[in-house]
Amino acid sequence: MATTIATPGPRNDFFKQLRTVCVPLSRLALQSTDKAAASKEIFTLVESLSGLWAAQVSSDATVLDEKLAEYTFFPVSHLLRFHDQFPIRVIEAIIKLLRFLIQYGWKQKISEDLAIQLLFFFSFTIGGSPGQAKKRDVPEETVVEGFKALEVLITAIGPSNLLASKAPDEQNETVSALGPAITVMLDGITDGVAPAVQLEALQCLQAVYTTTRNQHVLARFLPGTVSSLTKVLAPPLQQKTQRRVLVRCLQVLNIVLVNVLSDIKVRGILKQIETEDKAKQTAQPSGGTEKPQTELTPAWLRATTAQIKIALAAALKVRTHEAQDVQSAVSKFCISLLDECHLSLANCQAILVESAMMVENEETERSMLETSLQDLAAIHPELGDCIQATLYNWVTSLPRLIQSNDERIKQLAVRNILRGSRMASGMGMDSSTLNDSLGDSLRDSIVALVKSSKPSKVVGDVDENTLSTATDLTVSRPDIQSYPPVLLDSEGIKSTRAEITKLIANIGSPAQQTKLAAAMLGYLRDSEGVEQIASYWLAFELLKTTYNSTSDMEDLLDMSSLDENQYQEQVFQELYDFSASILASHSDAQDNDWRIEAIALEVTAFAASRMKEDFRPELIDVLYPVTTFLGSSTPQLRSHAITTLNVIAASCGYKSVSELVVDNADYMVNSISLRLNTFDISPASTKVLVMLIRLTGPRLIPFLDDVVAAIFAALDNYHGYPVFVESLFSVLSEVVTQGVKSDMLLLEGSNHQAVSHLKRGPQPLGVDTIVDTLNKRAKRAKRAREEEEAEPSEPHPKKPWGPDKTKEASQAKSLLDQLENPDPDEDEKEGGLPDDPSSALAAREDDEKKNQPSNTPTYALLTRVLTLSQHYLTSPTPTLRKSLLDLVATVSPALAPDENAFLPLVHTVWPVVVARIKDPEPFVAIAACKALGSMCEAAGDFMASRFKQEWGDGMAKWLRGVKREAVKGRGEMPRRTGTGAGRAFITGGKKAEDMEIVLPIRDVNGGELSSKQLVSTTSSTSGALGRFSQAHQLWDAALGLVTAILKYVRVDDEMFDEMLEVVVDVLHEPERRELKEALETINADAVWLALYERGRVKGVKSTPRAVKGFGFEFVRVSGVVA
């Protein structure tokens, strides 16, 4: 110690610092009898020593040597004698100080005896005495510190004592002490309470296998080490262990196996095995004494590798871990063993290759210096065979694994095939057997998935009629360019579907994918059900991938791919032809699987996206079938149809789907007409026709004569099917709706003009009018006088004017005789009677028809539709009756200009239309009122006699009944009061002063007239629905009909009075202003009087003024100046 003190410089300064702490610590260690009482001071001094060593290490560690360590260890050694009496925190501080002394003081110069003592001390402190229960719990921090010190100690004593290759029968004390330490390490790895403890224990174990060069020692500890590490890596501990611990376990296990079983370490044993194998082929081996298992012999190697294979099978289950760092560690582990232990662990090659393929990740960049599985396969050909066999096993087991309930297993199985196929493709492995197995496996797997998956529910589905007839479906939208999945559409298998799609997109080369697609087409035509759908979908996905993976520039530069491209086009053309046949054979009557039709729609859209404008000729065959799916009852098909139309429109150069449909309307009309002619009619076809007419507008109507004729024929043959008839009339209604918008209903040469039948009231005569009338009379009188003066006077006639009566009578008699007794010979000779008045009239009408220009085809079409509608207004389907009445209301104003053609139509449909106002369904009666109102506006006074007759036959009674029901619904029951001409409706509720009217009334005895006040008020109690009830809506429609009759049709006085009496109670309502104006146009005075009688005109109360000598009094009326 004197030499140490004499050392100058920093070392001397550090020694002085140590002495100030070591001296008091030695005194306490030697002289203190109560160790527990002095533990606090001892802890402070030990911590001070640790701080001094740590500070010196950070500043200048070169001054530290074994002598300073010995000086510092002197007081500590006395503390270690009584370590059981100190608290655990003092022990932790001592261990920390010892770590500094070993690592920076003694280093490799520590004595063997001290090393053995410290090994036991650290081991017993961490794990307790062997075979005894722990006397006290050791905190996690103390265990971590103990493993750190143990690692430092093993690293220090390894080169000096464990490097010597001693015989297995020689017992080395250090090796004996190492056994308990390794046991503690393995317990810390498997049973560590925290990841920090496990990591430090793994670090200690790594130090053992990296510093020990004695193969016999390592072989002795190998089974327990591999077993403990496997326990951590395999389930169930795998799920509970942190990723960094798993990665460290793989790294340590790799070090253990490479340092014990690498080809270099056991090359002598491998030569012995090779020699024994050769000897077995030549002669039987001689029997000998069995050697102990600890000796490194061929038997030991065989037994060890067999156990290692079992351990690896359990440990490598960690390859399914989702963490990228764990998979990377597995990959390095497998490749390292395949490289370093290629011969010694030859029996483990299959599981190592399989694990390496499972965790292969092409997305991560690999260093050029890092060995890969492909590199090893190039060096060792048997590894290539193992890769191919592994891939084949994966492919054949895919249908079985895909039926698992665990989605991770399904995804992992698909992902493995993808990685294996990529690796095989990169290594140039091509096997026809493998390709055929891959296609069959994919098809069977998809079938199994489709059968096991539940169909997704459509939330918020829309009614099919709304979708099929809405024009906004055909608006081109850029966001509707992708399809929802047809197969595997359940949310539960979304990830599995993504993995399968990725596998299909990246499997093999484009030529290989085309061959697989061709094979799927072979299955397609020979299968049915789910198998057919799976083959169809798989063939389409494979072909779609081949087109997406190759570009035109690549094809141009690669002349060898011409044959492959031709074969690819042939396969796709076959797929497209099959899809077109599926679309053309679509029928609502057949219960087809919607998925195969949806795939056909996708194939059609893909073909359009590839061919661009060259696809336009194909629209002749596919446009109408695609459009029919807009009326499908399956929401997924409707969605697919919308997307397909958008894709076709964009690909063929149309701005929108509307433009696509309008521009190809002739194709669609032709397809529809052919189907109608063969009575191949479905609800979807009629809906498509409605949409087509709605999009194209009036310009298509003239070309629909064949279609309408076919519809008429279908109506004649299937008039007993109400739903079908209704769908056909929906087309006719759309024809009418668009036809009335045409600006060419009549030819330009015709003289027909729209006539307004609106009634106008008498115009008041002003002064100017009277003056004009007088001037006209004066001019007329003046002109008569001038004519009388200019003409000479003639005598009165001497005989009657006109022809000779006798001659005229004889001619009439001869004509009658000829009509009664015609002469055939004379008729043949002269061609009939020249003077026949009926023939002359017919000839005159024929000449007028010839001279009159005929109407347009649109007008003729609308006329035919209106004529036909009368036969179905008695249909038992209320909705059909209502739609027909709406049709009548729509078409009447359009046909009105040509009265010669329109008025006979009105005469024809009048009986059936007017009968519908008494229909039991209120909404039909409302439609009938609107239709009659439209006919009144179009025909005018032509309807006068018909309404007059109908009014007397029951229309008046019907109108009163409708009013009665409406009043009941609103809770109003008007009552009359008063007598004679002065009675009025009184319902009570307001003050008398508000609505006072004074009327002159004569008393009963015929005496003087007296004034009587009448009060008319209104109170109503609304019912449950009020004006929204059916009765009130029907009353509104009836009032609208009355308004139309009054505005456009001539009515006689009696009919007018009855109408006024029925409707007078509602004339005060603001919404009845039009009705009131129509009544006032005919007779404003009658309207005022009716309102006056019912108290609807407010008078001004004044003092009665008597007229002397007459015995009565006048009433002051509002607006009259006294």
TrEMBL record:
Pfam families linked to this entry: TPR_TTI1_C, TPR_TTI1_N, TTI1
Taxonomic lineage: Eukaryota, Fungi, Dikarya, Ascomycota, Pezizomycotina
Q: Where is this region: Disordered?
A: 277-296, 776-857
Show the ranges annotated as biased composition (Acidic residues): 820-829
Q: What's the name of the protein?
A: Armadillo-type protein
Q: Which GO terms describe its cellular component?
A: cytoplasm
SUPFAM superfamilies, alphabetized: ARM repeat (SSF48371)
Q: Which InterPro entries match?
A: ARM-like (IPR011989), ARM-type_fold (IPR016024), TELO2-interacting_protein_1 (IPR052587), TPR_TTI1_C (IPR057567), TPR_TTI1_N (IPR057566), Tti1 (IPR016441), TTI1_rpt (IPR049362)
Q: Which residue ranges have biased composition labelled Basic and acidic residues?
A: 793-810
- Specify the TTI1 C-terminal TPR domain's residue ranges: 769-950
Enumerate the spans annotated as TTI1 N-terminal TPR domain: 15-359
